[in-house]
Amino acid sequence: MFILKNFSLKNKITEKFSTDEKIVLREGDTYEFLKEIPDETIKLVISSPPYNVGKIYEEKVDIKAYLKNQTRVISELVRVLKNDGSICWEIGNYIDKGEVYPLDIYYYDIFKNHNLTLRNRIIWHFGHGLHASKRFSGRYETILWFSKSDNYTFKLDDVRVPPKYPGKRHYKGPKKGQLSCNPKGKNPSDIWQIVKQDWENEVWDIPNVKSNHPEKTVHPCQFPVELVERCVLALTNENDWVFDPYSGVGSTLIAGIKNNRRVIGVDKEPEYIKITKQRIADFYLGKLKIRPLGKPVYKPTGREKIARTPREWKEKIKQKRLI
Predict the structure, then answer these.
(1) Which of 10, 160, 220, 295 has a CA that sits 20 to 30 A from residue 173's CA?
(2) Which has the closest alpha carbon to 217: 300, 137, 290, 303?
């Protein structure tokens, strides 16, 4: 057991699951660890599983073999999930020989085979990532939110966001002249591309963790704490168990601890476990940098040097005009 220096016993980290613990962090295989958890224990499972794209923490295999392995893990996750609990499965695309395989579509059938109900297919939009040359650059990933039953926890008021037009009023009917917005804020929504202006309003616009992000570690596909925190606040209550079966560098654990939830993380990479322990220690010591929940995404003003058109580009444009 790893106990953080200067911590009280209630803030310890243990490798073995027990209902008496607050923070469980295991280095090892997720499927084997799940055997230790009793039925209907976890309120929220949230993770970004390996995408089978050959990252340093995974071995790329045939798509069928990959999904077969994930199916057995998901079977155990459903077993340990409480009846009023949820699974949030954040996933991108698998690419093979230039062809895109949308993993959320493949995963849908796996969860449905366990009689889970899809409540939202949330689009997470981000502005930065790898640049493609033979297709449009990918700038979104998908979060599949499933509930185990119709009696699921959903606390919308805890995750409402400021309305775009708080002074908007009803223009007709019995409420004409009255404010039409909810004073607690609006539903953050998923994405509905019905009319053009909806695009700006209904995307979860949360920056991904790149080189200039305050939470950046060595992990190549790091979860932003803000993304997890919205799910934690909406789908769990204080002291509920939040479980990340592929915990990486511990963003899910940080989001849970920050909001007084009990947390479990499993990862097979020793370096990521070590970083997670340090991040948890830094959080309790007030040293961990976390992007604030709901902070507006930075937009360049055009005055920054890096946002200006390079002089070399201007010269090339000028030369083309002279030809």
Answers:
(1) 160
(2) 290
Q: How long a stretch of residues is the chain?
A: 323
* Cα separation, 154 vs 151, whole angstroms: 9
User: Is the CB of residue 30 less than 8 Å from the CB of residue 246?
Assistant: yes
d(CA 269, CA 181) in angstroms, rounded, equals 47
The C-alpha atoms of residue 182 and residue 38 are separated, in whole angstroms, by: 41
- Residues paired with residue 118 on neighbouring β-strands, in sequence order: 146
pLDDT tens per residue across span 287-322:
887 766 655 555 556 666 656 666 776 666 667 665
Q: Give the whole-angstrom CA distance, residue 43 versus residue 20.
A: 16
**What's this model's pTM, rounded to 2 decimal places?**
0.77
CA distance 279 to 194: 41
Strand-pair category, 140-147 with 117-125: antiparallel
Q: At the topology level of CATH, where does 9-322 sit? A: Rossmann fold (3.40.50)
Distance CA 122, CA 103 (A): 14
CA atoms within 13 A on the CB side of 185: 11
Cα–Cα dist 104/142, whole Å: 7
d(CA 312, CA 323): 17
For 289, the 3-state DSSP assignment is coil
